[in-house]
Amino acid sequence: MYKFRVSTKEENNNACFGDWVYGTGVSGEEQYALFFGKVRRRFGDNDSFSDDWETMYRYEITAEDENGNKLYFEVYHGAGGSSIGTPFSDELPPEYQQAKKELIEYIESAEPVDYVHESVYYDIPVNVKYIVKDGKATVESTFPEDMEEDFM
Fold first, then answer.
1. pLDDT at 79
2. Given this model, what pLDDT does residue 11 score?
3. Can you tell me the distance from the alpha carbon of 109 to that of 118, in angstroms, rounded to the nearest whole number?
4. For residues 66 and 76, what is the distance between their CA atoms, to the nearest angstrom?
5. Are 50 and 122 in contact (CB under 8 A)?
6. Residue 21, C-beta contacts closer than 8 angstroms, at least 6 positions apart
7. Residue spans per domain, the chain
């Protein structure tokens, strides 16, 4: 069993390779909004918040077991949505697999904070606004007028 906290600067300076939290990355925006609210509940606000949808937030997290062994993760919103990164590009060692599973469960079990966050998916571009209030997510998207019919 692991305990999770925001890493100190000295602890987590590793390059992280990410995997989507929600399978293939094809998931509802409401799910991403709620996950962000839950991450904020568990780890607070930080100075990584961005208006770029593909780099909306980033948290470096330390997982520590009962023996004091530490593992390092990055929780972030990337191009594929909500993601968890580790220092490994190939197969995760068993202890990382277990800690990653527990980290996702720890985040998912939180009640999301209420918040409003506006971002832009610059590739299209589309404005995306996440609103979480009383545990429910609303997403408002504004497409460029010449593209609106392609996405509606």
1. 86
2. 84
3. 25
4. 26
5. no
6. 35, 81, 82, 83, 84, 104
7. 3-111
What tokens were used for 79? 């191009």
* CA nearest neighbour of 54 among 31, 25, 22, 16: 25
Angstrom distances, CA of residue 89 to CA of 85, 111, 134? 9, 31, 38
- Alpha-helical runs (H) found in the chain: 29-43, 94-108, 148-151
């069993």: which residue's tokens?
1
pLDDT in 10s for each residue of the chain, 152 residues = 999 999 998 887 666 777 777 754 445 889 999 999 999 999 999 999 999 999 999 999 999 999 999 999 999 998 888 999 888 878 889 999 999 999 999 999 999 999 999 999 888 888 999 999 999 999 998 876 666 555 55
CA-CA-CA-CA dihedral for 125, 41, 115, 73, to nearest 10: -10
3-state secondary structure of 71: strand
